[in-house]
Amino acid sequence: MSDFPRWRYYLVAIVLVIGTLYALPNLYLAKPAVQVSASHTAPVDQALQQKIASALQAAKIPYQEESIKHDKSRGDYVLVGFTNGDQQKSAADTLRPLLGDDYTVAYNLQSTVPTWLSAIGGRSMPLGLDLQGGVRFLMAVDQNDVIDKQETRYTQDIAALLKDKKISFVSVARNATRGQGVIIVLNSAADRSAASDAIATEYTDLNVTDGTNTGDRYILNAVIKPNKLQDLAIAAISQNLATLSNRINALGVSEPVIQRQGEDHITVELAGVQDPAEAKKVIGATATLEYVAGLGDGRDPAVQEAAKTGNIPPDAHLYYGTRGEPYLVSKTPIATGDELVDAASGNDQQTGSPMVSVTLNSSGAAKMLDFTRDNVGKPMAVVYIERTTDTKMVNGQEVRTPKTTYTVINYATIQGVFSNKFQTTGLESSKSASELALMLKGGSLAASMDIVSEGVIGPSLGQDNIDKGLKAVLLGLGLVLVAAAIYYKLFGLVADVALFFNLVILVAVMSMIGVTLTMPGIAGIVLTLGMAIDANVLICERVREELRNGSTPLASIRAGYEKAWATILDANVTHLIAALALTTMGSGPIKGFGVTLLIGILTSMFTSVTVTHAITALIHGGRKLKTLSV
Amino acid sequence: MEIFNHNSNIHFLRIRKFTVGIAVLLMLVSIGLLATRSLNYGLDFTGGVSIDVTYDQPIMVEDVRAALDKGGIDNAIVQSVGGTRQVSIRFQPKDDKHYTLQEGKSPNLDLIAGDVSKALQASRQDAKIAGRNYVGPQVGEQLRSDGVTAAIFVIIGIGIYLWIRFERRFAIAALATEVHDVLVTLGVISLVQREFDLTVLASVLAVIGYSINDKVVVFDRIRELFRSSRKADPEEVLNRSINSTLSRTIITSLFTSIAMAALYLFGGPTVHGFAVTMLIGILVGTLSSIFVASPILLWLGVSKKDLMPVTRENPELARRP
């Protein structure tokens, strides 16, 4: 006993108990469930619950229980549990046509972890997309929007440049045809050549050519170079990728996959999310803000006239506010969402009403300063631009039409001159303020995106993988256990106990950290189990050697552990270096495997050496031994 | 139970010219294979085609798979997508020149979708193509370079550790055998043209970890024997080290192989590549631990004095007679 101090027994016991406790939640498999939530303002009540229950009974789909749940972020919803994925699928197929557009029917999972386990922080490992299904989006970048944004920008910039250089001009306007650049109309040939030189030197990405002259109108065409447009499109995708990552991270989805697909598509995979509606709200609603000069609100007779007749002044847009009141706003934005650096929600110090404080970058700040300097006391509107896609079935074919909605969310008088920092007040509630801030903070998209394909990956495929993975882990473990017991007898059995606990502690640590379990991760677990036994092989072989060399059994055990330890340490450190490199490789599946391996190596060093030593000391300590069963 | 005679004293180093010769030959063949046949890169690296199909009536995934096989579209991954009437089919159009557009950039989706539609409608009239996409590489070029970077990082990291813990010659011998193990494993994968996807890449990197583990055990024994033996003839010490760790080397390989075999047999198709690569790697790594690492060490001229524990170097003491 002397070679194994008492405190270490306690350590082993405590670790094993905690490990078992935190590995336990994984035994409670989440049940497949169908979630019904209201799309707009439809009621989620007993009547709806009754309707769902009777529909399921009529379709003869056995369900376990249905209940109305409340969630702060999602509101009320009805959750119905099923015993298998097929029932869940059939139920969703039954409920969708029945409930129509007013409700969203989505797959979800119902946790079955007992409350006392959740109370101490016990939770099961989140499962990857390959194990539990999830939501998949495919989004296309609107290339036209890239061109629109650039041409509008150059129109403003060229006008500013010409003013700056004191070159007089008649007009600077976008060509009516998209992609044909900017048309500059000047008064003389001299002005034209001066303007041409100025533009060409200032903006090297523009092709400047002389247009046909009509009378005293001298035309200059400035077109964005094709390769520059391509660069812009690529840059737009990269920026959108980063923006989406931020937004999705704000959603709190574990291990989201956000990647470029093809030329101008982006795919988003959210494992575990079975409710696309919530994710879409943040991802799909490509919202941005535009600050524009206000030309009149609902009290203005001109605005009332425009809303009634549809005769809108050429330099204005007619938009509506959140309560349906009309506004006329300028067509030229002062600052746009991509000039926004930060947005935070809070309460206005004076009125206590919810607000979003906004920080602009230098170009946005300069424009804002320019505008507010000349327009104190005049109104400024904040237009919230949301792009969604309408899907309709026409002749059995899905027809998707992009829809852009403009909402004036704020119409206020400019109180003073400001540039990079200001506040947007008058928002509905603190919830809408924080939602807006979240979407703005995620950054704005460099180009609008439409969701062109979206899918919920059914959990049945995942269940199949879970079953296979579990079988592989258990059979892999079982076979190694049997082999070790046959080859090393009692010492083998001791190693077996340790190997079993290695699996338990590995699972516990992965659960506590919240590592997403994927199929490569399961492969990592099996590999860890196969290699963890190596330490015991080293120890057993050493003990055998010591016995052969004529040492007493107890001395052999001591020497065996001592000598093997140096080797185990070296072997594991080198192995750890390899696992570390795998985790630093950013991509999903490899990372999952690497993390599993890394944790597995660490836990195996504890179980294979410390735990087996404790058990061996317990069995053999204080006894007079003639032989060892090894 | 013992499978190996613990007094075994096979003279592994006597045949070192032969074994190292074979190792070099295998490496050259592997390089040749990789250069000529390359690797059969999977969907993860090359991208592929995904096609969404809807049915008027519910359909089983197995039926879709069977229809595709009949229609000559192999290795298609068929998944049901939200409901029983929609499936997603992903595959890689292979060596089909007529599928590629003139620019050679992306495959001609119309042709592919047409073929898939034909194959599916042969068995089910109600199959309709709902959407088709060219799936770009998940990580593609970036991933490939990341993989190479990771492998180099592993090999160098391990080299530095061995240099510090052991000695320069051990680090060199380990690195040389590591390179051998990776190349030969990749060579075998190239030879049998197994699909090389992300999980296989992970497996190849895991092979490095496994195989170094094996070498370190032998190296550890070499160091120990050099230190304890009075008359240390390097060849004799190396040979004894291999023999006394032989049982452990093979038993551990067996145990790990058992676990990997279980993964191969029961883990399903997604981990087949991983398990097979690991099994190849374990075999290659075990053989190189026994037959290749030590001969290199011998040629590098490892000796007892290199491995004695570093005593406090005192110039005063050294100068004394």
UniProtKB/TrEMBL annotation, chain A:
Residues 492-619 form the Membrane transport protein MMPL domain. It is a multi-pass membrane protein. Residues 320-447 form the SecDF P1 head subdomain domain. It is found in: Cell membrane. One of its GO terms (biological process) is protein transport by the Sec complex. Residues 237-292 form the Protein translocase subunit SecDF P1 domain. One of its GO terms (molecular function) is protein-transporting ATPase activity. The keyword Transmembrane helix applies. It comes from the Bacteria. Keywords: Cell membrane, Membrane, Protein transport, Translocation, Transmembrane, Transmembrane helix, Transport. Pfam families: MMPL, SecD-TM1, SecD_1st, SecDF_P1_head. Part of the Sec protein translocase complex. Interacts with the SecYEG preprotein conducting channel. SecDF uses the proton motive force (PMF) to complete protein translocation after the ATP-dependent function of SecA. Belongs to the SecD/SecF family. SecD subfamily. HAMAP family: SecD_B. This is Protein translocase subunit SecD. The lineage of its organism: Bacteria, Pseudomonadati, Pseudomonadota, Gammaproteobacteria, Lysobacterales.
UniProtKB/TrEMBL annotation, chain B:
GO terms for biological process: intracellular protein transmembrane transport; protein targeting; protein transport by the Sec complex. Its main location: membrane. GO terms for molecular function: protein-transporting ATPase activity. Keywords: Cell membrane, Membrane, Protein transport, Translocation, Transmembrane, Transmembrane helix, Transport. It comes from the Bacteria. Gene3D superfamilies: Multidrug efflux transporter AcrB transmembrane domain. Pfam families: Sec_GG (PF07549), SecD_SecF_C (PF02355). Residues 117-301 form the Protein export membrane protein SecD/SecF C-terminal domain. One of its GO terms (cellular component) is plasma membrane. It is a multi-pass membrane protein. Forms a complex with SecD. Part of the essential Sec protein translocation apparatus which comprises SecA, SecYEG and auxiliary proteins SecDF-YajC and YidC. Belongs to the SecD/SecF family. SecF subfamily. Part of the Sec protein translocase complex. Interacts with the SecYEG preprotein conducting channel. SecDF uses the proton motive force (PMF) to complete protein translocation after the ATP-dependent function of SecA. This is Protein-export membrane protein SecF.
